[in-house]
Amino acid sequence: MKAVVLAAGEGQRLRPLTLTRPKHMIQVAGKPLLEHLLGALKKAGFTDILMIVNYKAERIIEYFGDGEKFGLKIEYVFQKEIRGTANAFGVAENKVEGDFLAVYGDLLISPDVIEAALKLHHSENPAVTMTVLHVERPEQYGVLETRGTRVVKIVEKPSAKFAAQKPINAGIYVFSQEIFETIKQTKDSSRGEQEITDSIQMLIKAGKKVVAAEISSGDWRDVGRPWDLLEANSRMLMKTKPEILGEVEENVHLKDSVFVAENARIRSGTYIEGPAHIGEGSDIGPNCYIRPYTSVGKNVRIGNACEIKNCIVMDRTHIAHLSYVGDSIIGEDCNLGAGTITANLRLDYKPVKMIIRDKVVDTGKEKLGVIIGDNVKTGVGTLLMPGVKIGCNSWIGPNVNVGRDVPPDTILLIEQNLSQKSR
Questions:
Q1: Which residues are catalytic?
Q2: Entry pTM
Q3: Mean pLDDT across the stretch 40-57?
């Protein structure tokens, strides 16, 4: 059986990180999201992969190639335009034979999820096998009405009252060839896209058997928003095995699971509390405190007396001395000036809010710092307030207090001491 992986979308809710890469290539725990997914597929026995791509496809193809170095066989097919999940899976019609596994490329899942779907599919022989699970806020997803394992109705982002206690669609399917004819008949949704759940609902109305395998929330993570990335990073780092391949100087303390890659250097006086990942060629210290759930990319420099906590720091970024970065994501090729401070906690202890696609969203997180795109520079003494996003290629001047989002390609030299009223 072939696995079809949907990796065509941009991930607008993850901007500014996705302005320069597809969301599937954002690194967590030292690897792109998509690599973690492919690893789970391989462990479940899938080595023949069909990748559906579009947005910045060259980044995916350059990294994974034909899949040989990952022990896989990868073929690519382009979705000509982003027209929804049904349209995306539809372009695989002439590339798969018989039943096939289909999965969204921005999920972190365990092999157990795939095995549960396959087991039910083989025993029930349905037109479609879905995977479902229970989450705290199901109204944010598509929810299912079921009778036993049989799916009787799918509703996308319903009211909280309707969604209560109902399982959500987990985005891992086993399709029979019947899905392709139904996709051709699927009309655009209110979002102007062809939704695969609408295609499945058509099969249900036609009396076709659609079943759902229930999975554990601990085996699944949807990565659609910036704070989801930090959660995904934490989950994958918890699987880190301690290993020291680089140079660790005297008077360095490593606690719990810390991975130090080749050619990395940890300077004297540094304390690293795992789980943590230090990428190849990175240089940490002296006298730094790297706290749990921190993932440092390749060729990163973190200077004297910095504290980094629960962060993703991407490749070739430089964080100068006396800086604090907490609960944040820092893009590639950034330079944070000495004494740059990211605030990650509101004075009123309320959940941090963030603007996502022009709407103020309650993240539900009491602690959340900043999201910084690629090629950003901050001057000495810059202060960044909780939930702020800094667009790619922007420069923030010295001693500037940033309380609202900064667009890409911006030079900000004036003080902004007031946060947005919506916060």
A1: 321
A2: 0.89
A3: 95
